[in-house]
Design a protein that fits this description.
The complex is a heterodimer of chains A (about 280) and B (about 325). Chain A is mainly α and about 280 residues long. Chain A contains 11 helices and no strands. Chain A has 2 domains: about 50 residues, no CATH class; about 170 residues, Orthogonal Bundle (MetI-like fold), CATH 1.10.3720. Chain B is mainly alpha-helical. The chains are: A mainly alpha (about 280), B mainly alpha (about 325). Chain B: It is found in: Cell membrane.
């Protein structure tokens, strides 16, 4: 775009760009949705809308033989417990990181960031052996404990950002009014940081919900698999055909709750990222 | 994938905080000591958990990589119940006898990282520039852009496996029959396309956040000085979003180096053309060959560590907690220049 182009051309090009960006992001997702709504017999159709619309694949997903309901429950338990534990520990730590002055603060922050970059497989291998020895394979704790390795640093990192954005004065005012630091934290900081804590919970939950490697390695019984693992192992009518239709349907079911959450919290994350700089 | 966050921004400078705090409590020394004790109390549970779930397994992997499989002891000929200590033989095997598989996985990992992060950065920056200029429909674009990020990687692997099916939409669109998910260079292409789709939008979002803090006056001044759009991009936009961009790129690199889900689901386990180091280690471990698996895990860890170290040397204070310290002076400098 050079200045020689007329204003109309420029805005035209701009909106073409916007359409391209949106299409790039949504087209594959849309294809998953469309494919999930086709009948098995016309799964290879390439029309942009399914005709006729069929919920055959969704019925197949909830066929008791697939055990998909159980897999969803497993995912919910693993991701839920991981999120709650990570949030609990991270709230205290992030408060200290944002508000208190102490030696080794930089070191602690570096350690937390370093662990978040850690290759998960490096801990999965030894833990797989340990959990095999103590009989933890096919248990929830075998998935929750390794998940903490990425969920906790993520939560600490996000919450530290949120706590830092809150003005110091609030807490000082509470302390002048006779609160101890602990009371100030409980009665002033936590309620005010609730939106930040909530957003962090969503991000952590999405990360834990999307986890695949740990869940794949730590389970071998179908009834203990999480949803992503279960879907990747869906079997069709015969062993030779991949049941793409029901995989797409299950994929939509697993993704839609996340998409809804993201749509609700997208304004928050963008605001969170820009708030610090605006001040 | 979700770990790509902009570093916490210090609000009003860390230096001013302790002063006010001390004034409130009276005795500065006691306040500092109390604050230190409290910090230790608040921080230690996290450190404890991280040392149990990260540090301890890492040390275990290190130890495990020095032991061989149970069974026939080659030295004595007896069947043993314990794992024999083999020293560095697992490493020697990996780099020697089974070296092909290791180096293949090493190059695949490196290739995927360099290509995907490179493409993501270019596409992400382009997306951010478009979104930054667009005024109508910005919320819609932003929501749309987060969707690939929210789709679980495992599901996106299945989705792209379907798109790249021999009778799938990708082949229909290009009018060719390519067996994308079979061994060969095209399998790499499939993985790269899927990975870039999923992660480029998030880089775009982070860069957009960086773009929005650049003051408009800077561009006005540049325009008055006669700088055209490309020149403005290279000399204003890029230097000013560089800190945010570099952090995003670092996190993306670390994430790409441990890539597992996508090639595993899209193409499959033990496929020469897409096997990454994570897949190799996981494959050995799931076949109960913990010795070699641990050795692979340790080597991957070292590789990631070295890359991270190189980045930190490169970025310095921009990365760790120095959001405000590293950025503001730089911004002023660049603008003045």
């Amino acid at each position: 775009m050079t200045t020689t182009l007329s204003a109309r051309w420029r805005s035209g090009l701009l909106y073409a760009g916007v359409v391209a960006v949106v299409a790039y992001c949504l087209a594959p997702f849309y294809w998953m949705l469309v494919s999930s709504l086709r009948r098995t017999s016309d799964i290879f159709d390439t029309s942009l809308v399914p005709s006729p619309v069929s919920f055959e694949n969704y019925r197949a997903v909830f066929d008791p033989a697939q055990g998909f309901g159980r897999a969803l429950l497993n995912s919910l338990v693993v991701a839920g417990v991981t999120t709650v534990l990570a949030l609990l520990l991270a709230t205290f730590t992030a408060y200290a990181m944002a508000r208190l002055d102490f030696r080794f603060k930089r070191l602690v922050l570096t350690l937390v960031i370093a662990t978040s970059m850690f290759p998960v497989v490096s801990i999965v291998v030894p833990l797989l052996k340990l959990f095999t020895d103590v009989g933890w394979i096919n248990t929830y704790q075998a998935m929750i404990v390794p998940s903490m390795s990425f969920a906790l640093p993520l939560a600490v990192w996000n919450l530290t950002t949120f706590f830092r954005q809150m003005p110091d004065e609030l807490e000082h005012a509470a302390m002048v009014d006779g609160c101890t630091r602990g009371q100030a934290f409980r009665r002033v900081i936590v309620p005010l940081a609730a939106p930040g804590i909530f957003t962090t919970a969503i991000i952590t939950f999405i990360a834990a919900w999307n986890e695949f490697l740990i869940a794949l390695s730590m389970t071998n019984r179908p009834d203990m698999q999480t949803a992503p693992v279960a879907i990747s192992k869906f079997t069709g009518a015969t062993t030779y055909e991949t049941p793409f239709g029901s995989q797409m349907a299950a994929g939509v079911l697993v993704t839609v709750p996340l998409v809804v959450m993201v749509l609700l919290f997208q304004r928050r994350i963008v605001a969170g990222l820009t708030a610090g700089a605006a001040k | 994938m979700t770990k790509t966050e902009v570093p916490p921004e210090a609000t009003d400078g860390p230096a001013s905080a302790p002063v006010t705090r001390r004034r409130l409590t009276g005795n500065p020394a006691r306040a500092a000591a109390g604050s230190g004790r409290m910090a230790a109390l608040l921080v230690s549970p996290t450190l404890l958990v991280l040392s149990v779930v990260v540090a301890y397994p890492t040390l275990m992997a290190l130890k495990e990589s020095l032991y061989g499989p149970k069974g026939l002891d080659p030295a004595t000929g007896f069947i043993s119940d314990t794992e024999p200590f083999v020293g560095l033989r697992n490493y020697a095997d990996i780099l020697g006898e089974a070296g092909d598989r290791f180096w293949n996985a090493f190059w695949n990992t490196t290739f995927f990282t360099v290509v995907t992060v490179g493409l993501e950065t270019v596409i992400g920056v382009a997306m951010a520039l478009i979104m930054h200029k667009a005024f109508r429909g910005r919320g819609l674009v932003r929501a749309g852009i987060l969707i690939p990020w929210a789709v679980p990687t495992a599901i996106s692997g299945l989705l792209w496996r379907w798109i790249f099916n021999s009778d799938g939409i990708a082949n229909t669109l290009i009018g060719h029959q390519v067996l994308w998910t079979t061994e060969g260079f095209h399998a790499k292409v499939a993985v790269i396309v899927a990975e870039v789709w999923k992660t480029a939008p998030f880089i775009g979002l982070l860069v957009l956040a960086g773009l929005q803090v650049i003051p408009k006056e800077v561009y006005e001044a540049a325009r008055l000085d006669g700088a055209r759009a490309p020149r403005q991009f290279w000399h204003i936009t890029l230097p000013l979003v560089k800190p945010a961009l570099l952090v995003a790129v670092l996190f993306r690199c670390m994430d790409a180096l441990r890539m597992f889900d996508l090639p595993y689901i899209l193409v499959g386990a033990q496929k020469h053309s897409v096997e990454t180091l994570s897949m190799l280690a996981q494959n050995e471990a799931s076949n109960v060959r913990f010795g070699p698996a641990s050795a692979y895990a340790v080597l991957l860890f070292l590789y990631v560590f070295l890359i991270a170290l190189a980045f930190v040397r490169l970025l310095g204070a921009d990365l760790v907690g120095g959001g405000a310290v590293g950025r503001r002076p730089r911004r002023r400098r660049e603008v003045a220049a």
